[in-house]
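S1.2 Input.
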Amino acid sequence: MPIWPPRPYATALRSAQPTPTSPASQRCGGRTRWPNRNTDLMRAIRIIAKMLMMPVVRRPRAAAVGVALMMPGMALTGTASSAPSPIAAYSLAAPTSAGKSGLVARAVVPAGSSCPSLVVDGRRFAMSWRKPAPNTGNAFASVMVCNRVVPPGALAASVGGLPIPAAMPRAVQRIGIFDDNGCRILTGEVTQDCSDDRAWPLARISQRMAASRPDVVLVPGDFFYRESACPPTAQALCAGSPPPVTGMPFTDQAYGWIADVMLPMQPVLRAAPLIVARGNHEDCWRAGNGYMLFMDPRPDTWDDCAPLPGPGGTVTAPEVATAPYAIDLPVTARRTLRMVITDTAPGSDRRVTAAAALMAPQFQKAATLAAPAAGRESWLITHRPIFGYVSSLIAAPGTSPWSSADAVQASRGTLGSYRLIVSGHIHLAQVTQIPGQATQLVLGNGGTELDPATGYALPSYGPGTPPYPAPTSNWTLAEFGYAVAQPGRRPGRWAIRLRDMDGRMQAACGLAAATLTCTPQWPSAGTSGPPGR
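S1.3 Output.
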């Protein structure tokens, strides 16, 4: 079985790099000639650096060492006592029930090594192993995930030499938002070009967002899109992409997460704590096990998607809707933004199923978390939008364009306390206003294959049965991008700027009285207007 990726994505490849004076190197025409292994290594690193727009030195340094990462089930080199630099290290915003600081440090290291220490203001703290779910076979056997709650009051933090965000903001000024990020590889559908940073611009968007210096970054799900092996007819687009592990009742594995998330999102991982929600691509039969291992900040969710033993092997875990939780972001001494994270991974977009009854109690708990309180304004964070609709080019003739049938049904009667609903799922940017409801903001344009650019005339009726009132306004733009939200001077007011992959503004939006209005900017794109337009 070949190493994946073919020498490149191994940002932690084999250590012991030779020096120009070592026997392994030769002088040739006044220049150092490196042995084939290092020639291949640097060629591969440059390919990946170009893909991720990361600077790269001409000669590998001995300090940038690690352990070769191999496909699940292959032997690993290195010793159990070694602690190489992490493949990735990052901070996750967590409910205070998980830790007083509301922040969890996480690191992904090669299997066979020990967990590195979390270093906070010069003090070392041991990290613990976050186990993969049972019955996942070799899917996550080649990495180890390490975890530790960051102590309160931290000023600086690092893991294995990699700096990570040390604390939640004391006064939030900028919130980065993007969603639906991975490179789409799915049998029978269009394959995205994972080698082109404009066709799959996640690394480019991550750099732009990090440059905006966000205090936190909100990612409402659908991190993972590598659900199939790269098709033989699309090798130019995705050759070497890690396929699902044969025989497992789910579609993700460790190398897919490294390729779709850990590497391209490195600038964002360094920049700010992540606030995350689970998307439908992280449902248990898809990438739920990886999400629970790498991304869910809570200590008791690691096995929520564990496959079950069956007569012929393992079978997919039953659908689960995890409990909602709140992340509080102080704005001023007398003003707080509460984000209520609500799981909408299970269910259907087109019809109401048993998943609606599964999610309904969680929406009710979320409404309790969002109950009005002095100085507090609440946003509902879901992956599936409550008030989002798709292009008429996607919706089957005679069917409703409204998305998220189960989530719409499950949330009915629970939305009255929110000032804004932030979601992804539909692969575009969209702002929809339903009378009497908080505005729906969809930002599902963070890197994965986009939805059609046209076909978004306002429906003459709202979602659900019985239907909500017809929308009064909509703005839609099917271009890659991200958003940065900044608080206004008055409670409940926010300025939200939508930008493209190159940082150019797409729309300037203002939130007031639970209504978000947007003014298109360059390139003056997007569709909006009254019904029938």
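S1.4 Remarks. Residues 322-533 form a domain with the Purple Acid Phosphatase; chain A, domain 2 fold (CATH 3.60.21.10).
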